[in-house]
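Hi support team,

I submitted a single chain yesterday and got back a structure, but I'm not sure I'm reading the token output correctly. Could someone confirm the output below corresponds to the sequence I sent? I've pasted both exactly as they appear in my results page.

Thanks,
R.
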Amino acid sequence: MHIAIIGAAGMVGRKLTAKLVADGVLSGEPIKRLTLLDVVQPAAPEGFAGRVDARASDLSDEGEAEKIVAARPDVIFHLAAIVSGEAEVDFEKGYRINLDGTRLLFEAIRHANGEDGYKPRLVFTSSCAVVGAPFPYPVPDDFNLTPLTSYGTQKAISELLLADYSRRGFFDGIGIRLPTICIRPGKPNRAASGFFSGILREPLIGMEAVLPVPESVRHWHASPRSAVGFLVHGATIDLAPLGVQRSLNMPGVSATVGEQIEALRRVAGEKAVKLIRREPDELVQRIVSGWAQGFEAKRSRELGFTAESSFDEIIRVHIDDELGGQLP
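Hi R., thanks for writing in. Yes, this is the structure output for that exact sequence:
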């Protein structure tokens, strides 16, 4: 089996690559080739006996999508995107990367399908930002797409394209609406949601963190481990039950910022909590105020997608996966 990961240098892309290499198989078939792509060259994974093609590639550049499709990967994970905060600040860049690049990929597959019947499984990372206020709590699976940010709009349009190209038989696609991934390891990025991880990640290692929103803000979360599980599961299950509704809200944990902080207190103590500094940010507050607080995620759960059940569990996953199983 040949698997391509677009956005392989990002946090989720790296963890997905590591998971696939560790498993060695997907849907019962040995993984013999990996194509790893990102705007910076991804690192080749250790311990993989098959062929690895790792290179820098901007999906929105002319001809790049055709190069990916020319190798006829059996499964394509499309993870590449400009994050929410950056897409809101840089309108043109957001649409070029998040929408134009996606359509170029879909078109390259369509043309290959017409040439030789090539029909890969395509797993697209969408976002819960495709819905916006006002909405009920929890948000049902059939809620209308009502994005209130450029990022959410770009993902919503891509979801519609994914459904149409799948309906026409050009590829077998599934859209994975990721919750906000928490706790993200590494350095902060420009995502408006980055503080959700920062107020936990930094205090866990004795560093100060900034909280730009009130503790009453409620949002929908899952760990990086769960995100990888969503993607792998989406690449392997029978998609016929999805019908024309190809994008799914993923399971997660609904929690307020205050509940996150209480979970941090239970796991790491008062010393960690005292490292959180309140510093209101009007832009971040405006963006986050339009995000869903929680989802039913009934369809995805029925199809076998699973996530954590509490924020304590999310914090402990981070400690296990990133801190060697114990606090410094």
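A quick pointer for reading it: The radius of gyration is 19 Å. Let us know if anything else looks off.

Best,
Support desk
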